[in-house]
Amino acid sequence: MRKKIVAGNWKMNLQLDEAKQLLQEIKALGKNVSDVNLIINPPALYISLFKELLENSVIALGAQNCSEHESGAYTGEIAAQMIKSCGANYVIVGHSERRSYYHETNAIIAEKINRALAANLSPIFCCGELLSEREENNHFKVVEQQLKEGLFHLNEKDIKNVVIAYEPVWAIGTGVTATAEQAQEMHAFIRKVLKDFYTEATAQNCSILYGGSCNASNAKELFSNPDIDGGLIGGASLKAADFLTIAQSF
Ligand code: PEP
After folding, report:
1. Is 111 designated active site?
2. Displacement of CA 141 from its chain's centroid (Å)
3. Quick one: which H or E segment has residue 131?
4. What is the Cα–Cα distance from 98 to 115, expressed in whole angstroms?
5. DSSP 167-191
6. The pLDDT of residue 63
7. What domains sit in the chain, N to C, each tagged with a CATH number?
8. Which of 127, 170, 208, 232 gets mutated to test ligand 1 (max ligand atoms within 8 A of its CB)?
């Protein structure tokens, strides 16, 4: 049985007081959620404090990014080891905002994946096509290339620690969600690519999350599909009640 996961990507939102308040609300409501792994990815600056505040909670923490370097003179960067040492167990790698605004290539993303795994963090590897790529019917090819160049250098043992998030770029933060059929079709494709490259068991055990304007109203329809194992949630993760409704949508 693969893990059901609902992960919140808070992005660059919330001052410390607001962030603490939201965390406490999610912590309280999260007690009603069972069988779902809840992960919060706040700004990295907050992870250490959140770790303390989440004592006795099953909610896990992740960062939104890590450096492709191990350590050293990289001003402003945060190493995977640092993230781990502050109490996180996950890190988002290859988010489309990083790919587009910070020019992260598949090769850089592959390095970040290596750093994350070396630090004992589970990467949440994001992939997904642009609207123009879907319109040109290239979406499967694009996602397959992202997987092959960013992730499939891993061996059978390491790939088991990776969570994949399919996030069509045209659906992120736009209010336009992929239909359940579009999402399921791509998730099934990703699982097939995993099976062809690794093994059936690896494909079946890998959690594949959907991300892109997933909210309290559409999560149930999305999560009812056989290959959709949960969601990576942006905007709707900033409201505790919505985030928890999504987590109860399986
Ligand atoms: C995201 O940024 O990972 C995301 C899915 O954002 P949103 O839910 O706001 O579309």
Report:
1. no
2. 21
3. helix 131-135
4. 17
5. --GGGTTTS-PPPHHHHHHHHHHHH
6. 98
7. 5-247 (3.20.20.70)
8. 232
Rg (CA), the chain: 17
pLDDT at 94 over 90: yes
d(CA 226, CA 235): 25
pTM of the full structure: 0.98
Q: How far is the CA of 144 from the centre of ligand 1 (A)?
A: 21
3-state secondary structure of 43: coil
**Helix axes of 240-247 and 16-30: crossing angle, nearest 10 degrees:** 40
Confidence at residue 1, expressed as pLDDT on a 0 to 100 scale: 79
Q: Which atom of ligand 1 is nearest to the CA of 231?
A: 5
Q: Tell me the residue type at 34.
A: S
β-pairing verdict for 230-233 and 5-9? parallel
76 contact partners, CB below 8 Å, separation of at least 6: none
